[in-house]
């Protein structure tokens, strides 16, 4: 029993000293990009846009895709880091599901510029 306690304490001390789990070969800072990214769910983004759209009298069905206030706050916080142009392009692409070519034609820019802005926005 004492040996088990000693092992547990040594394990905890090593974790605190090295700032990584004992036995791991790589720290979190050395992992591949896909292993340390936080996933942003596209359906949640689309629900965010659908829930913020105005309702009209001629539209007889209610807002079916309402999100919680916590999710709304998280999305708004994530979008606040983007520039106005990046936000606009990102919202058109991910929120309203427009193609790069349609976005490019609406904004009078090239589709490669749209792709670059979306990649930059996703990194942020």
Summary?
With 124 residues, the chain is mainly alpha-helical.
List the helices and strands and how they pair.
Blueprint: H1 2-18, H2 33-36, H3 42-52, H4 69-79, H5 84-95, H6 100-107, H7 111-123
What share of residues is helical? 55-70%
CATH class of the largest domain, named: Mainly Alpha
Query: How many helical elements?
Result: 7
What characteristic shape results from the CA principal axes?
Answer: elongated
- Cα distance spanning the termini: 49 Å
Query: Strand-and-helix sequence, N→C?
Result: HHHHHHH
Q: Whole-number radius of gyration?
A: 22 Å
Q: Quickly give the CATH architecture of the largest domain.
A: Orthogonal Bundle
Total discrete domains = 2
Percentage of residues in DSSP E strands: under 5%
- How confident is the prediction overall: mean pLDDT? 77
Main features:
124 residues; mainly alpha; Arc Repressor Mutant, subunit A
Structure description:
- By secondary structure, this protein is an all-alpha fold.
- The protein folds into 2 domains: 1-32; 38-123, Arc Repressor Mutant, subunit A, CATH 1.10.10.
- 61% of the residues lie in helices and 0% in strands.
- It has helices spanning 2-18, 33-36, 42-52, 69-79, 84-95, 100-107, 111-123.
- Helix 5 packs across helix 7 (111-123) and helix 6 (100-107) packs across helix 7 (111-123).
- The protein is elongated, with a radius of gyration of 22 Å.
């Amino acid at each position: 029993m004492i040996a088990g306690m000693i092992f547990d304490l040594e394990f905890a001390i090593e974790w605190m000293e090295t700032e990584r789990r004992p036995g791991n070969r790589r720290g979190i800072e050395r992992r591949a990009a896909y292993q340390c990214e936080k996933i942003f769910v596209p359906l949640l983004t689309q629900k965010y846009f659908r829930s913020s759209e105005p309702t009209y009298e001629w539209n007889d069905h209610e807002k079916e895709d309402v999100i919680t206030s916590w999710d709304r706050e998280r999305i708004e916080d994530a979008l606040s880091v983007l520039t106005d142009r990046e936000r606009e392009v990102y919202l058109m692409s991910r929120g309203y599901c427009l193609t790069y070519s349609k976005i490019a034609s609406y904004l009078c820019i090239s589709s490669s510029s749209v792709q670059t802005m979306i990649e930059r926005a996703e990194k942020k």
